[in-house]
Amino acid sequence: MKKIATWTALALATSLAGCASTSHSNRGLDSVHQPVVRNTVYQFDVAAGSGELAPSEQGRLQGWLDALGVRYGDRIAIEDPSVYGASEAQSTIREMVARRGLMLTNDVPVTTGAVPPGHLRVVITRATAEVPGCPDWSSKSSINFNNATSSNYGCATNSNLAAMVADPNDLIKGATAKGNDPSSATRAIKTYREKPQTGANDLRSQSTSNAGGSQ
Length: 215
Hints:
Elements: E1 2-12, E2 36-47, H1 55-68, E3 75-79, H2 87-98, E4 119-130, H3 155-164, H4 182-185, H5 187-194
Antiparallel strand pairs: 1-2, 2-4, 3-4
């Protein structure tokens, strides 16, 4: 059964003093308008049984993932309360997620209610980012005796950053390069250098000495 968690986690990318109403007195170069990241948890229970996930349950789960539009940045986890673990059903779910270019995480957030016996719970944590209070034209830009920034300072840059970032959680803590495979990073360049050009074997050699036509 589809459920949506009732709580939302809040996190500020940067903590700054001041608020929108007093932003005209900000004499620093750090904008008081910073992205706010919210995490929403979605959960879906599927009947696991004692073996693989049944085709009907796979169809239900597939429809739920399609409805949510699962994408990069979503954190997907499996909550399995069984004693021995439904490894085959988990493997099926992992393959379904992998076909979307995503991976499962071992960090399972707190969900609503208990998982029914004989079921697995698929949990998706989705982060969104926005800059509240923007645009802010509460101050006059023509007269400023405090040598302060405009009340709207930083709104455009930070709003665009919040809209474009693939994983909003990176605004809280940036991703690290730990565990990356250098060969994967250079695979595109290696393929470009070693693979023959498209249609190279079908091109004909033609002299350009008579390009202007015969006299």
